[in-house]
Amino acid sequence: MYIFITILIVIAAILLTLLVLVQNSKGGGLAAGFASGNMVMGAPKTADFLEKATWTLIALIVVFSIAAVGFNKGQQVETDDQSAIHVEETVPAQPAAELPAEDAE
Fold it and tell me: CA-CA 20 to 30 A from 98: which of 20, 75, 82, 89?
């Protein structure tokens, strides 16, 4: 399920990128070339649709990301129980025997 949601996130991100490129910006954007065509075809509110679609995709990416974290966390708990490494407490090593002090002459 995690992989499926990840694929949905990637598809939504690609669509979001394309929608942002089509929208008008201060410099005109790619939509500037299509503006006259939209008016002739009777769709003067294309910018509103593109903005709503952009916000919808952003919301979908957020929801899918939260769902992916939830599914990934659930999968981690299952695998952690199966492959847990149990560390046994070890007895600390005995200190080395003290060497007799050398007489400094």
Answer: 89
